[in-house]
Design goal:
Layout lengths: L1 H22 L3 H8 L2 E5 L2 E2 L3 E3 L5 E2 L1 H14 L5 E5 L5 H6 L5 E3 L6 H4 L3 E2 L4 E10 L16 E5 L2 H10 L4 E5 L2 H9 L5 E5 H10 L3 E3 L10 E4 L2 E2 L4 H16 L3 H12 L15
Length: 278
């Protein structure tokens, strides 16, 4: 009887330990077994992530996702994209619908309370694009009830607009392409969007111009990062290490190539110093 009890107890302890180990499995282990990554992305944010004339999802962030799949699973095509809107990106990660998000997402302290970020993969900031025929040169002139200012329907953009442009009429929309179309069709005078996207639209449209934002909060440097559900250190460490190698390590040549391909310029230097001197 004692032998049976000891055997039963041992089996119970082994089962409990196994169950605990399973509960502690990282998403990294799950992804490796699944043999596919699932990534939240936008489809209306050129040149970062958008649908081209052939109906294909392309862009800087799309290339990043394919490279992560290749590095992790040996095949760049082992990735499934889930297209989201701004307000759906964090719920998609927190619910487990996606493994991580590449959605031109800026790091903010209040966001970091509920979502995990890697180190930044892109330096960015806010830019204001306006119709040339509006006759305005800087953001201060936009602070007038006769002008309509289009922004993404997200808390940081809304709060910034209330503080800096309280007199302009606000038009809240769900995607960068919707902002662009609102200005192109005359529904709005100007729109606010991340600098890489603003660069793209200004370059492609002669009737649009960049407003001067020097000396204003619109000129502050911000940073975009990969985001994911918090609490999984192993999964976060893989993605954060990957970004670190891209921006300042062994994958920097690839970073240069993507920058030149999609943003049409050189990226920031690999390091802020010459490592050969140290």
């Amino acid at each position: 009887m004692k032998t049976l009890l000891r055997s039963a107890l041992s089996a119970l302890l082994l089962f409990t330990a196994f169950a605990a180990a399973r509960a502690d499995d990282s998403l990294l282990d799950t992804v490796l077994k699944r043999d596919k990554i699932i990534v939240a992305t936008y489809s209306t944010s050129p040149p970062l992530a958008y649908v081209d004339d052939n109906g294909k999802l392309v862009g800087f962030e799309i290339d990043m996702a394919h490279q992560i799949a290749k590095d992790l699973l040996g095949d760049e095509n082992k990735v499934e994209f889930v297209v989201v809107q701004s307000d759906g990106r964090f719920p998609a990660a927190l619910s487990g619908k996606v493994d991580f998000g590449l959605c031109s997402t800026t790091i903010f302290p209040d966001r970091a309370v509920r979502i995990a970020f890697t180190r930044p993969y892109l330096d960015t900031g806010n830019s204001l694009i306006a119709r040339k025929d509006a006759g305005i040169k800087d953001f201060a002139q936009l602070n007038d009830p006769k002008f309509t200012y289009a922004i993404l329907n997200v808390p940081p953009a809304i709060e910034r607009a209330k503080q800096l442009l309280p007199n302009a009429r606000l038009l809240l929309l769900d995607s960068p392409s919707a902002l662009f179309l609102a200005v192109k069709t005359g529904r709005a005078t100007a729109f606010n969007i991340d600098k890489p996207i603003a660069d793209y639209y200004e370059h492609e449209n002669d009737d649009l111009m960049r407003l001067n934002v020097d000396g204003t909060p619109f000129a502050y440097v911000q940073q975009d990062a990969i985001f994911m559900k918090p609490g999984d250190f192993k999964w976060w460490l893989f993605l954060d290490t990957w970004v670190g190698e891209l921006r300042s390590g062994s994958r920097y040549p690839q970073y240069v190539a993507w920058y030149q391909k999609w943003l049409h310029k050189d990226p920031p230097p690999q390091r802020g110093y010459d490592f050969n001197k140290y």
